[in-house]
Design brief:
Strand order of the largest sheet: 3-4-5-6-7-8-9
Mean pLDDT: 75
Radius of gyration: 18 Å
Distance between the termini: 52 Å
CATH topology: Penicillin V Acylase, Chain A
Largest sheet: 7 strands, antiparallel
Order of helices and strands: EEEEEEHHEEEEEEHHEEE
CATH architecture: 4-Layer Sandwich
Number of strands: 15
Oligomer: single chain
Shape: globular
Low-confidence stretches: 1-8, 164-171
Helix content: 10-25%
Strand content: 25-35%
Length: 295
């Protein structure tokens, strides 16, 4: 019997660097992965965009109800620019204030204007009043990975990264892998809405898979392992990483020596016809690689 579709949805993301990576790519690559598991309310395309200081490659689109489909209004789910800075966002939830923007808009602005994790954090700090509700911004460059937990009107921003600034309230996250679902870990006093059972279940599962100083418990990360973790032992429960038919599995592979050689690996990765509740596919034959055009 076919398993009924799951109502919950949400993004699940992580970044890996250094000892968390497979030895074959440890010195040459940085990985940022995002499962964009949301309802079908936006367009989603792979594009190379030259609309700011830096050209960038991204999975991006617009709200289907929007009349403004210009690049200035583009929503970027995940991308990497020519400087080697990658960005992606997870939504936390809350009250949207008039005139403010969400994480997907900030990812576009970051990729257009910033060249490193540190400059992106400075940009977010400077423009903090433009944020709405809650956002988790994943960042990666050839030397560092980071997660920024950001809240608009109080801007209780915390940057947790692979350098010494990963110390937050006496706790230190894994310096080589950072991961999130859809709630804050450190900004507990600024959560705009209570964390759902769904996001807590996915985060608990991520912890069981990835809380290891030498990579995930499933294995050291490369592109294929990253995507394998994103579907490992999926089921119809709250902790499944793959729930909606519009699922996009996006893996960004930053080339540390030559950022223009960075790759976005993309595959829909969802098979609604499966009857065992494991809707997340292996992407065999459907995984696509996108690179910068000749520059």
């Amino acid at each position: 019997m076919k398993v009924a579709s799951i109502e919950h949805e949400g993004c699940t993301s992580w970044a890996a660097i250094g000892d968390a990576l497979d030895p074959n790519i440890r010195s040459s690559k940085v990985i940022l992965h995002k499962n964009r598991d949301m309802s079908d309310t936006h367009t989603m395309d792979i594009r190379e965009i030259d609309n700011g200081a830096y050209t960038y490659l991204a999975i991006a689109g617009h709200n289907k109800d929007s009349s403004n489909t210009t690049d200035d209004n583009l929503l970027v789910w995940a991308g990497v620019n020519e400087a080697g800075l990658a960005a992606a966002s997870n939504y936390v939830g809350g009250i949207n204030l008039f005139g403010t923007r969400g994480g997907a808009s900030f990812c576009r602005e970051i990729l257009e204007n910033c060249d490193s994790v540190d400059s992106a954090y400075a940009y977010i700090s400077k423009n903090k009043s433009k944020f709405y509700s809650g956002n988790l911004i994943f960042l990666a460059d050839p030397h560092k990975i980071a997660v920024i937990e950001a809240k608009v009107w109080l801007f209780g921003a915390v940057k947790i990264s692979s350098k010494s600034d990963s110390v937050v309230d006496g706790s230190v996250e894994n310096p080589n892998i950072l991961y999130r679902s859809n709630h804050y870990i450190h900004l507990t006093n600024y959560i705009p809405l209570p964390a759902s059972d769904d996001t807590m279940a996915r985060y608990t599962r991520l912890t069981s898979l990835m809380d290891n100083t030498a990579g995930s418990l499933y294995g050291l990360i490369d592109v294929q392992q990253s995507r394998a973790v994103s579907r490992l032992e999926n089921n119809a429960g709250n902790d499944a990483f793959c729930k909606t038919s519009t699922l996009a599995r996006i893996t960004i592979e930053i080339d540390r020596a030559n950022p223009l050689a960075s790759i976005i690996w993309y595959g829909p990765g969802y098979d609604e016809s499966r009857e065992d509740g494991d809707h997340c596919t292996d992407d065999a034959g459907s995984l696509m690689a996108y690179t910068f055009y000749q520059k």
